[in-house]
Design a protein that fits this description.
The structure is a homodimer. Chain A contains twelve helices and nine strands. The first copy, chain A, has about 290 residues and is of the alpha/beta class. In chain A, the strands form two sheets. A six-stranded parallel sheet of chain A has the order 3-2-1-4-5-6, with helices on both faces. In chain A, strands 7-8-9 form a three-stranded mixed sheet, covered by helices on one side. The first copy, chain A, starts with a helix and ends in a 9-residue tail after the last helix. The interface between A and B is large, with 89 and 89 residues.
Chain lengths: ~290, ~290
Amino acid sequence: MPQSRVSGKWQVVAIVGVGLIGGSVGGAIRQRKLAEQVIGIGHNEHELEWARHRGWLDTWTTSLAEGVRQAELTVVCVPVDQIANCILEAAQHMPANSLITDVGSTKRNIVVAVEGKLPGWVEYVPAHPLAGSEKSGPYHADPDLFVQRQVIVTPTRSNTSAGLLRIRNFWTALGSTVQQMSAEEHDRMAAAISHLPHLLAAALVRATPRQWLPFAASGFRDTTRVAAGDPRLWTAILLANREAVQQALELWEQQIVMVRRLLEAPDGPGLQQWLAQAQQVRHALGSGNPTDRT
Amino acid sequence: MPQSRVSGKWQVVAIVGVGLIGGSVGGAIRQRKLAEQVIGIGHNEHELEWARHRGWLDTWTTSLAEGVRQAELTVVCVPVDQIANCILEAAQHMPANSLITDVGSTKRNIVVAVEGKLPGWVEYVPAHPLAGSEKSGPYHADPDLFVQRQVIVTPTRSNTSAGLLRIRNFWTALGSTVQQMSAEEHDRMAAAISHLPHLLAAALVRATPRQWLPFAASGFRDTTRVAAGDPRLWTAILLANREAVQQALELWEQQIVMVRRLLEAPDGPGLQQWLAQAQQVRHALGSGNPTDRT
């Protein structure tokens, strides 16, 4: 076993897709000196060169095959609808005993799509860092994006304990806390705490008559901030996790039916209790993350 | 006309209800030296004394009659369901040619309730500063709460241009931009940009399975922040503005029906367009207020 693995340091890490997340992963690895070399892989040469110049990458290429050829670890940071194909293609060119992880906001669709199709010399450990922003692109990348954030790892049937441990350690080294759950559980969780809120924020923006928007104060801005997210990325996420999002929407609709009745009655004490229960839960959640940037 | 009016300075200003907003009004007046004396009126002696000590008030009393007896201006900062009665009672004890304004989040219910019942020597000019917080109480008051915020003034049929101007100048002196509209228009606006978002945030918190809350990241926290607001205050607001809130909820439900269909189809291009329109509007809104405190 080479020295690098024992020390938790990697020789070559390839990052496929150098946007907000990919750029942040690269910057985080380089800032913490966790690899000898970070190679960025993408389509946009201008952005890749910018990311290299900014210090997020050591080098870059537009060829997936070339970029991953020596990569002990490949981190796939492309949109969720491209991750599975990207993993399958990258694996063909990766060296023996190498690892792939990803940052996709959905997990089951990817796990199902790659299942049984990976070559024996590559192990894929699915992951999802619960970090991000309504912004996108390498220009908004941040080497501390994963600090004090949670990363969900969803082991597959073919994962080895050694592979799992190395990927857990990778994310821990970037400052995150790693949690494990099944891909199905992850997708239900993500639907509830991320995908549904996004959809509701977008619906709220759309439902607001334009003439009132100039009066929107901090409450409205907070409530709708996530709706500024990239529509292409979010379409892919919502479609990939369609069933769980629909289920979350059902649960949500029950609350709307309930409050609509309380308003129609009108039932003051009932409404106050309905609001008080929400307040109690929201208070327990705290005001924000220490690394929040709004 | 006494010198004080010419210079835009008040002799005595009474503030009824010294919580987050009332305390901030008092602090703003005193910091800007806009009055000779600021008198706080409330029930909780401990909070009133704290507010005086903190510099939000010059003096305080628990007697409404005493507190407003010499007040050229009374600012009513009690919950919306108590404002109308408070105005009617205060007016009985106020001096000749005095003014009342308020900070209620709803306007029509108050205007209707006081219409034709005020004595001739007092003029009431309804107002609503679009500022606030999910926090409450004088401990969170801030003399700069109204800086760069909008204050909506909703003139009644009995308002004089002189009275209206003095109240507009009062809020302008606190750092706000003043807008005028009808009480009905205000209430529809407030339902769309404040009351509905509050209700939706509360519903989202309630609809989220408890076991997923520990995974809530900044997106969920932003989207639900307003749900931490005081349930008693918000029940009063939602009931006072019930019809406009119900109408806003209808508009909103149309968006949910739309996105539900797009998910069910599934219609990727349609969903992306639906999200893109929301993103465009949200972008135009900007990321937040300069004086945001989260």
